[in-house]
Design a protein that fits this description.
Helix content of chain A: 25-40%
Radius of gyration of chain A: 23 Å
Number of domains of chain B: 2
Shape of chain A: elongated
Number of strands of chain A: 20
CATH architecture of the largest domain in chain B: Up-down Bundle
Number of strands of chain B: 2
Largest sheet of chain A: 6 strands, mixed
Number of domains of chain A: 2
CATH class of the largest domain in chain A: Alpha Beta
CATH class of the largest domain in chain B: Mainly Alpha
Strand content of chain A: 15-25%
Shape of chain B: elongated
Strand order of the largest sheet of chain A: 6-2-1-10-20-19
Helix content of chain B: 55-70%
Oligomer: heterodimer
Distance between the termini of chain B: 28 Å
Largest sheet of chain B: 2 strands, antiparallel
Chain lengths: 461, 354
């Protein structure tokens, strides 16, 4: 079977587009098969906002410098050393040349957003966010002759003797088969398939919310793993944060995050506290709360604050539940009122001198004799009205993925597959064993998307 | 103000405030992010600060079919148009014209008829050139009130706007900042200088910015031309018609050409753009207003070109009729936006520079 395309790219987000643009500029005829309809194109890239970038001197919107060693050190901290040093350093080192490349291909940046100033040195923010970036890349790709088919779900890649011989996709109810010279998988993780999540996590996963696209169901990932293509990562590992429990099941994105935990107490459905809410500043702790909430009964948590803390954090999309008494708040939130009263009273009694309270730094205003303790920002919850938010686990993307080498090439039985490459979240598990570093997903996607595009084009031409 | 329009814009602003990805596009977002809650006045101010560049819409991860269903340019445009109607004096008249292209057309034709009538039955005959058709005193009798009343009306509107948005005492630096933003339409630059998203979806383009400035500067040149003519007439006793090298012509001819090209371009862009991202209900009224302004410019140029031919009296009546309608409708049509926009920019300058 022949095809008018040299390269087929599965997926339509940042990594796919970087690959498509690079390959098309190298002279290849490229087809993008995007599972989502046009309005939802771009996968999780639609919801992103920045790109973590190494730089030795001020670069674009980035101030000062951010060295390879510092960047790698930050990655080691969040992953607890669970990374692949060679691939990680490749991503970090290449990020610096990516930023001007992104600008040349239509991406526009802005200064760090209000409320995120701590990232102004390390992360370059996309003007308008990731959908702006995705739109710019589609414009550029289409100008280069890249063809895009939306609503095109790839169902199978046939791997034979270390080579992909054809792929099947369905579009508008019909099945199609293509045999391009090269194939790039950039189709994300499998988090939108909650059955798969439940197989890995247990039934608790059914209560997780998915922060991003509902189209990353891991169909191609599962298909390739089933055929013995090398995989990497633990299926229970993912980027997961605690988000507003009222968020939609899919695609809630950034606005559902809650930044109020450090100024609160967080209880489970039995109105019991379960973790130190003031362990560290929120940007360093929000990613662990997804897992903490996942470990509670019904995978739900409840944040309780009082009037004096209401304006200390970024507003989120849903207004808090409000009541004049704790008992009324408990009733509105479906918590046992007497237990909540007891938990709050015990917490309040363990609070000490709060004069040193400082909302943006570790202030050491701690509880004494309380288990678990609250080690910073511990102020008694006393001032009506009282406010509450429910918390659920919000999964961004899963880390189980395709194992790749420095050329973004996939392998089977320890031998490279001659015409298969992978980029983006679908191979990010090669670098992120656990934990997450803000803006690093876009770095991996851009760096490995460009590598995959270049390698595939060299092979296909 | 229509509560449902404000409420919808507020709902959307609250989503924007939790996201903040669009901070760099224009002045709306830094102003929006400075609040936690939005009063009706805050929403009105944001609405009048918005230049409908649409960058935020195309970049938005929450537009339909997403359940949050954001369309901030349209929500703000609806509030903006509503505010122009509500703050207009008398506001009943604004309701007739702001969104109604047919009413604007009808008013223009009435203007033509009045001037034809004036030419035919009143005050003709004693001057030279145009004044042979309609005497100078007659023109002044018609146009002085037609110019002064709209200014008075707009003054009242701006006062209402200022009260609603809790404006403070205005300093020179506020005005300087506002005029500098208007002078180059900074809010249509897209934040990166590549322009806005208007006629071709998410492609950045300077077309609307340039077309708008052709209209703006063309209009100001024409206005300066008329003013210079008035000064020559009263202070220097130099009467029309003026030669090509006179101040009124040197200002008026290029101004008229810019205004004609600019208005045609604006209408073409409006036809290409997605009407769902603006105030849908006002689309007809806006196009009719631009057409009227374009006709004022074009008929003015025609008058210059054909001033010594037999068709001159006809064109003069058409031109003056259009000018009359344009001035009288000023507070009640899209023309009002310029005044509100400046007020919003001054108000925003108070926020940023204290």
């Amino acid at each position: 079977m022949t095809t008018p395309y040299d390269i087929v790219i599965i997926g339509g987000g940042n990594a796919a587009l970087c690959a498509a643009i690079t390959a098309a500029e190298a002279g290849s005829r490229v087809l993008i098969l995007e599972a989502a309809p046009k309005a939802y194109r771009g996968g999780n890239s639609r919801h992103t906002r920045n790109f973590r970038c190494m730089h030795s001197a001020p670069l674009g919107p980035l101030i000062e410098s951010y060295s390879e060693e510092e960047y790698f050190g930050d990655l080691m901290k969040v992953t607890d050393g669970k990374t692949h040093e060679g691939l990680a350093r490749l991503a970090i080192r290449t990020s610096e040349e990516c930023l001007p490349w992104m600008q040349e291909h239509g991406v526009r940046f802005q200064s760090a957003l209000s409320g995120t100033l701590s990232l102004g040195r390390t992360n370059a923010f996309f003007l308008g966010g990731g959908k702006g970036l995705v739109n710019a890349y589609y414009r550029t790709a289409e100008k280069l002759g890249v063809k895009v088919i939306y609503d095109a779900s790839v169902t199978h890649l046939e791997v034979e003797d270390g080579k992909v011989v054809f792929l099947d996709y369905s579009h508008q109810g019909r099945s199609h088969r293509l045999s391009p010279a090269a194939i790039i998988v950039a189709a994300g993780g499998f988090q939108a398939d909650t059955d798969w999540l439940a197989r890995a996590w247990g039934p608790a996963a059914k209560n997780f919310l998915i922060r991003g696209t509902p189209y990353n169901r891991g169909v191609v990932l599962a298909d390739l793993i089933d055929q013995g293509v090398e995989q990497v990562g633990d299926p229970t590992q993912c980027h997961a944060v605690a988000i507003d429990g009222r968020a939609p099941k899919f695609d809630g994105g950034i606005v559902t995050r809650l930044d109020c935990v450090p100024f609160s107490i967080v209880v489970n459905k039995d109105a019991q506290r379960f973790y130190d809410e003031g362990e560290d500043v929120w940007p360093k702790r929000y990613a662990i709360w997804g897992r903490l909430v996942a470990g509670q009964p019904d995978q739900v948590g409840y944040v309780i604050i009082d009037a004096k803390s209401l304006n200390l954090f970024m507003p989120s999309v849903f207004p808090p539940i409000k009541a004049d008494t704790l008992e009324e708040l408990a009733k509105k939130m479906g918590l046992p009122a007497a237990e909540l009263r007891k938990t709050v009273d015990t917490f309040n009694a363990s609070c000490g001198d709060t004069n040193g309270f400082h909302p943006t730094e570790l202030d050491g205003v701690t509880t004494t004799g309380l288990i678990p303790p609250k080690t910073n920002w511990a102020r008694p919850i006393t001032e009506a009205p009282f406010y509450g938010y429910s918390l659920r686990t919000g999964v961004t993307f899963t880390y189980l993925g395709l194992k790749v080498d420095e050329n973004a090439q996939c392998s089977i039985g320890n031998r490279p597959i001659s015409n298969l490459w992978a980029a983006g979240e679908t191979m990010a598990g090669s670098i992120l064993g656990q934990g997450y570093l803000a803006g690093f997903g876009m770095t991996i996607g851009t760096v490995f998307g460009r590598i995959a595009g270049k390698e595939a084009a060299e092979y296909a031409n | 103000m229509q509560i449902d329009l404000i409420q919808e814009a507020r709902r959307q602003a609250e989503v924007c405030n939790a996201c903040r990805y669009c901070e760099g596009y224009c002045s709306v977002f830094p102003a929006l992010h400075a609040n936690r809650a939005f009063s009706d006045g805050d929403i009105t101010q944001l609405a009048n600060l918005c230049h409908n560049c649409r960058g935020c819409y195309y970049a938005c991860q929450y537009t339909a079919p997403h359940e949050f269903d954001l369309n901030l340019p349209a929500a703000l445009a609806d509030v903006r148009h509503d505010s122009w109607e509500v703050y207009a004096y008398p506001s009943q008249i604004a309701r007739q014209f702001q969104k109604n292209g047919m009413a604007i057309a009808a008013a223009t034709i009435t203007g033509f008829a009045l001037l034809f009538a004036a030419a035919k039955w009143l005050g003709q005959g004693h001057g030279i050139g145009f004044y042979a058709v309609i005497s100078h005193n007659m023109m002044v009798a018609i146009f002085a009130p037609a110019f002064l009343f709209p200014l008075f009306s707009i003054g009242i509107s701006l006062r209402r706007y200022w009260t609603a948005t809790e404006g403070q005492k205005i300093k020179v630096k506020h005005i300087a900042q506002a005029f500098s933003a208007a002078a180059n339409m900074r809010n249509l630059s897209g934040g990166h200088g590549n322009g806005c998203n208007f006629e071709d979806k998410d492609r950045f383009s300077q077309a609307r910015r340039v077309a708008h400035q052709l209209v703006l500067y063309g209009f100001l040149l024409c206005f300066a031309s008329t003013s210079s003519g008035t000064i020559l007439h009263y202070l220097f006793d130099m009467q029309a018609p003026y030669s090509l090298l006179s101040l009124p012509k040197l200002l008026g001819v290029p101004g008229g050409i810019m205004l004609t090209i600019g208005t045609i371009w604006m209408v073409l862009l409006k036809f290409q753009a997605d009407p769902n991202l603006g105030a849908m209900a006002a689309w007809g009224g806006e196009v009719a207003f631009i057409a009227l302004l374009g006709f004022v410019a074009f008929s003015g140029l025609a008058l210059y070109a054909l001033g010594s031919t037999a068709v001159m009296p006809t064109i003069l009546a058409l031109h003056l009729g259009a000018v009359l309608s344009f001035f009288l409708l000023m507070p009640y049509t899209k023309m009002a936006h310029g005044f509100y926009r400046l007020a919003a920019l001054v108000r925003d300058a108070q926020r940023t520079s204290g």
